Amino acid sequence: MMFRKLILIAVVSGVSSSVLADPAPSSAAQPVASIADRPALNAVTAMPADYTISSQDTLTIDVFGVPELSQTAVQVDNAGTVAMPFIGQVQAVGLTTTQLSQRIAHQLDQKYVKNPIVTVTVKDAASQKITVDGEVTQPGVYEIVPHTTLTQAVALAKGPSNVADIHDVSIVRVGATGRNVTNYDLDEIHDGKATDPFVQANDEVVVDASGSRKFVRDFGSVLGLLTYWHP
User: Fold this and answer.
1) What is the rounded end-to-end Cα distance, in angstroms, of the chain?
2) Number of domains in the chain
3) Phi, psi of 188, rounded to the nearest 5 degrees
4) In angstroms, rounded to a whole number, what is the distance separating the alpha carbons of residues 57 and 92?
5) Cα–Cα distance between 159 and 169 in angstroms, integer?
6) Distance CA 152, CA 157 (A)
7) pTM
8) Which of 135, 145, 152 lies closest to 190, judged by CA?
9) 18 in a domain, yes or no?
10) Is residue 67 part of a domain?
11) How far apart are CA 184 and CA 9, in angstroms?
12) Run means of pLDDT, 10 residues per run, the chain, 231 residues
C-alpha cells in the first residue's frame, strides 16, 4: 500500500511540474491595444539613407587617411554650410550625407587630395517639425527627433480618431522633384507585414477617414438632433 502511494505521489508531482513548466495556451481573447498605445516598430539607431541635412545639425566628416581634414563634430550654420579646412564653406542643407560626401570629395580632389574617400554622418540632428492632420485625435504641428517613425508620428497626435481609416495613411513630402505622396497601412505595419517608415522634417502625415465610419457618426448626430426636436 505504501509503495502504491509513493508511485501515485510521484506521478501527480510529475504532471504538476509539467503543467507549470509548459502551460497550455489560453483560449481567452487578449485585449488589443489601440494604435496610439502600441509600440512603434523598427527602433533603428541608424539615420535613414535619404535623410536631408538641416541647419544646426552636427556632422562628422571623415577623410580617409587624412586626419587634418577630418572633423568629429562640425555644425551646419544658419546659412546652410559647413566649414572645411582648405576648401572653406560647403553647402550642406538639402543634401543627403552621401551627396555631401561626394561634394566635399570633388572639391578636395581638384586641388588637395587625389581621389579622396569622404564619409559624412549625422552625429546629432536638430529638432524638426512635422504636421499631423486628418482623422487624428489632436491634429497639429509636432516636433520630432531623428528616427521618428510613422506610427510614432500618429501617436504624437494621440492616435487615430474613431472614424479614421488606418489602412489609408499618407506621408506627403516635398523634395527636389516636387510633391510626393506615399500611402501606408498602419495595421500591416503593426502586424509586421510592412516596415514602419521614418518621417522627416516638414513632412505632412494625413490620416484619411473611413467612409462607413464617418457615415455612422454623421447619421448618429442627425438622429440625435431629430430626437431632440421631436421627443
Assistant:
1) 80
2) 2
3) -65, -35
4) 10
5) 12
6) 9
7) 0.50
8) 152
9) no
10) yes
11) 58
12) 42 40 42 44 54 88 95 93 95 94 96 94 84 96 88 96 94 83 95 93 91 51 51 55
